[in-house]
Amino acid sequence: RGDTPVLALLNTDGSGERVLTRPEEIEMLASDWSNDGEWILGSCRFNPSDRYSTCAMPVSAGGNTSRVRVIASDPKRNLFNQRYSPDQKWIAFLAHDLMYSSTSTVYVIPAGGGAWRALTDGASFDDKPRWGPDGRVLYYVSSREGVKNVWARRFDAASGAAIGEPFPVTAFRSAQFLVSSQAVQMDIAVTSTHLVIPMSESRSDIWMLDHLER
Q: N or C: fewer beta carbons within 10 Å in the chain?
């Protein structure tokens, strides 16, 4: 269907390309891979008029879209940026209502499907949810104070409940250094000791010219 992307697998040396989806059957935007390598997680839709759902596709499906599992869906919102928790028991994602494009909400659900648990309040645009290495903290980019920064919220992996209130991780306020405005293209990464985030830097100078009459 026109420019519908195709999901494919390659060996690490670039050989052995294997197409997993066909444009006329499904659009799958991959965002994560299960630890055992058996499932690809991401956003999918079966028709251009559909909203994107949270879906998991077995690598062994070999193009058989009937084996795609729709884990969460909403007729009014697109679901994006899915990530498995480190213990593979939970999935984090964001829900974005196109009627309210300036806001979104980060949710967590059981990996097999079930009740949605909101990690953010939906009053600002929250994006790119990423798990900490131990699965006890979920990080995300938020515009909740008018400027994009990385925020986080603690998470109880046993009960699936948020703990405490969201807290800021970064505090960029100057126009000179800001989190990248390229919301779709940008990403963040979290290690046991570091946070990796794309930044933009802006500088300017004011010049004074003398003797303009010359």
A: C
Beta strands in the chain (DSSP E): 8-9, 18-19, 27-33, 39-45, 53-58, 69-72, 78-84, 90-96, 105-110, 117-118, 126-131, 137-142, 149-156, 161-168, 177-179, 189-190, 195-196, 199-201
Model confidence pTM above 0.85: yes
First to last CA, the chain: 64
Q: How would DSSP label each residue in 56-109? A: EEEGGGTT-GGG-EEEE--TT-EEEEEEE-TTSSEEEEEEE-GGGTT--EEEEE
pLDDT band for 25, please (50, 70, 90 cuts). Answer: confident
Which residue, chain included where needed, has tokens 């026109």? 2
For residue 169, what are the contacts with CB-CB under 8 A and spacing of at least 6? 139, 149, 150, 151, 152, 195
Strands 161-168 and 8-9: unpaired
